[in-house]
Amino acid sequence: MKNRNVIITGANSGIGKSAAQIFAYAGYTVVIACRNLEKGEKALQEIVAASNNKAVHLMQVDMSSLASISQFCAAYKEQFDKLDILINNAGYFNHGEGRRLSADGIEITFATNVVGPFLLTELLKNELKKSDDPRVLNASSNIIKHYFSPKKNIDLDNISGNPSVGYKHSVYANYRDSKMAFLMLSFKMAEEYRELGIAVNSLQINGARMSNETLRKFAPHWRIIARIQNLFFPPTEFVGNNYFELCTSDDFANKTGKQFNHKLKSMRKGPENPKPNHIWGSQVYPVYATNKSVQERIWNLCFDLTKKHLNSDTYSEDVQSHELVAFA
Ligand SMILES: NC(=O)c1ccc[n+]([C@@H]2O[C@H](COP(=O)([O-])OP(=O)(O)OC[C@H]3O[C@@H](n4cnc5c(N)ncnc54)[C@H](OP(=O)(O)O)[C@@H]3O)[C@@H](O)[C@H]2O)c1
After folding, report:
1. CB 211 less than 6 A from any atom of ligand 1
2. Which of 156, 159, 323, 324 is deepest in the core (most CB within 10 A)?
3. Which CATH number fits domain 5-321: 3.30.1490.20, 3.40.30.10, 3.40.50.720, 1.10.3720.10?
């Protein structure tokens, strides 16, 4: 196999770590992008030992911090000459805390799960363009099924700063909104990057066994629910393997703007009036995800919140110089 580079965020545990191990075993150059270097170092040793691949690198990034993401991208560009695969896997779903803002004043769940991946991908766009088959994969969740209800809307009015009068904090709602916003951002990103030849897809994760460390982050009542769910969830390797297939298999080459399910089938837009089989199954996603004005608003919000960190060189390159790819 020719040398291919992959970055996986949040690869010190869970699905990200399993995926890193699978890529390393297959001979890829793997960057595990972790916020905690101590945990990252431990994961690195384990991945190298299990895969016998020395081309696994640990790099620090806090996906909730715009400055940290900028530093990570600068360091990546110094060390590597291109990027083939970017997996935006890191996710914040801490059910134990009240409303918290990131260092940049953005609600922490939205900062980590939406704005961070947006900035990371934008800043690595030119590195991706250097690959002959660049693929971005975003970690989605079946929590987006809440939007089958026509009453559900993402609360985009309380993303940064002080919340408006009447705002009721809910970590669950923050996570739910962030994951729907991330899917909508993926659709918009796929459209925006189409002419650059960069594929952007998303995987709806129905569940994967959570580690004790992850469970400890939850408030006690959520921990009980998560422990019960864990009994029915597949191991993290199952999802890690899905990441690998979507990012490497020829079956998914030239596919962009798709939401895939756990069987790696491309999901369709659901009907306006979903029936129970739509809600329980994994064939369709809520029609809300295709709302162009909300997609546009999320995209613009991400640009606005990150504009100080977007390098001018990201935009100045002549996109026409890239060979156009025919996406399906
Ligand atoms: N497991 C499930 O049932 C399930 C279901 C649907 C979707 N998902 C999605 O799948 C992805 C992986 O989740 P998982 O189940 O593997 O959970 P996990 O084991 O808790 O992994 C989450 C990873 O994200 C990292 N992370 C969190 N905040 C970060 C930040 N600010 N900067 C950098 N890294 C950060 C964590 O690092 P630390 O160790 O430092 O906290 C950890 O490595 C997430 O996007 C999640 O939303 C999971």
Report:
1. yes
2. 159
3. 3.40.50.720
